[in-house]
Specification:
Order of helices and strands: HHHHEEEEHHHHHHHHEEEEE
Structural class: alpha+beta
Number of domains: 2
Helix content: 25-40%
Oligomer: single chain
Number of strands: 9
Keywords: Signal
Signal peptide: 1-18
């Protein structure tokens, strides 16, 4: 009997030690899964612990939505996991911010806010008859109908669709960077961004890319070139160009909620 008890204690201790702590990606996958997660509270802190009291986020998401988790960045003390939701109508994305304490814990959930306003605008614009569209062009010569519709569609698109747009037009984005870097007024401190955006060659290129403006004073990064797609107030989405990864700003739940690398110094970013 004593030998059996000793063996049982050893096996119990071994099984406890054999379970590694959950990493951010695994926590994210369980937190957004369709089924519940009884141990959820052990992996939440801060505002996330206040918001998810009875159900996981996955239980609150419609069951029809497919969920895909992707690690964006993980350091010794923080991590960000992107979650894509997708069904037959399209996709949407949000971001889980983790902090390392004694264990990894989810501290905040973020997503691009105020996109419903963009969807409402798009519905109204797409419903305009041809005569009204022509009148719109006359009253909005700097942002005509086709540009505005394309810009709003890109603003409210999923990350995957924005990335696909970038990949398809990457050569044009890089040409825009070359034109901007050739302007001393844009590379100066402070830059004359209005003059750069008004340059006929740059303006035409930006319109074809559905970019509302370029700036060096966005996304917590004075060194980056930011191609702003759109958004409202501080809730913006765009593309960053910064070939030196050391100068790319760090993500945080308070402002820069995601910076997704797209390769060769390009990033998709969102603020809130």
């Amino acid at each position: 009997m004593k030998n059996f008890l000793l063996l049982f204690l050893l096996l119990t201790a071994f099984s406890t030690r054999a379970q590694p702590p959950l990493m951010p990606l695994h926590i994210a996958e369980r937190f957004v899964a369709r089924e519940g997660w009884p141990a959820m509270r052990d992996y939440l802190c801060c505002e996330a612990a206040q918001q998810a009291k009875r159900q996981t986020l996955g239980q609150q998401i419609p069951a029809r939505m497919a969920r895909t988790c992707e690690m964006v960045q993980q350091t010794d003390t923080s991590a960000v996991v992107a979650v894509e939701l997708r069904d037959s109508t399209g996709g949407n994305d949000f971001y889980l911010h983790f902090v390392k304490r004694s264990t990894w814990q989810l501290q905040a959930v973020r997503g691009l806010a105020m996109t419903n306003f963009g969807r409402q605008m798009l519905t109204v614009l797409e419903g305009l008859p041809p005569a009204e569209r022509a009148r719109y062009n006359q009253t909005h010569p700097k942002a005509e109908y086709d540009f505005t519709v394309g810009n709003i569609r890109l603003w409210i698109s999923s990350d995957a669709d924005i990335e696909a747009h970038f990949n398809q037009r990457q050569a044009d984005f890089e040409q825009a960077v070359q034109l901007l870097q050739a302007r001393p007024d844009f590379t100066a401190t402070p830059p004359d961004e209005a003059a750069a955006n008004a340059d006929p060659a740059i303006s035409a290129l930006l319109k074809s890319l559905y970019i509302s403006k370029v700036t060096r004073q966005a996304a917590d990064c004075d060194a980056c070139v930011a191609f702003v797609i759109g958004g409202l107030i501080d809730n913006t989405v765009g593309l960053l160009y910064e070939p030196d990864a050391r100068k790319v700003p760090a993500m945080n739940p308070q402002s820069l909620i995601v910076v997704k690398p797209l390769g060769k110094g390009w990033y998709l970013y969102k603020t809130t």
